[in-house]
From TrEMBL:
It comes from the Bacteria. This is Purine permease ygfU. It comes from Mannheimia haemolytica. Keywords: Membrane, Transmembrane, Transmembrane helix. GO terms for cellular component: membrane. The lineage of its organism: Bacteria, Pseudomonadati, Pseudomonadota, Gammaproteobacteria, Pasteurellales. The chain crosses the membrane at residues 29-47, 53-71. It is a multi-pass membrane protein. It is found in: Membrane.
Amino acid sequence: MIGLSLIPVAVDWFAGGQRTDPHYATPENLIMASFVLIIVVALVQWGKGIFSAAAIVIGMMIGYIVSLALVG
C-alpha cells in the first residue's frame, strides 16, 4: 500500500520536481530520468555483488556526473 501511494511522488520526481515549475516534464528531464532508470535496472539485472546491491547509488552518481557534463 505504501508503494502504491508513492507512485505520484515518483512520477513528479521523474518529470523534474513540482508541477508548477516551468521546467516540469521537459524532454531534458525525461531523458535524464530515463537514462538513470535504465542504468539502475541494468545494474540490478546484470550486475554482480556490490554493483547489483548499490544500483540506486551508482545510478544516481552516474546521473549526477552526466548532468554536470551537460550543464557545462
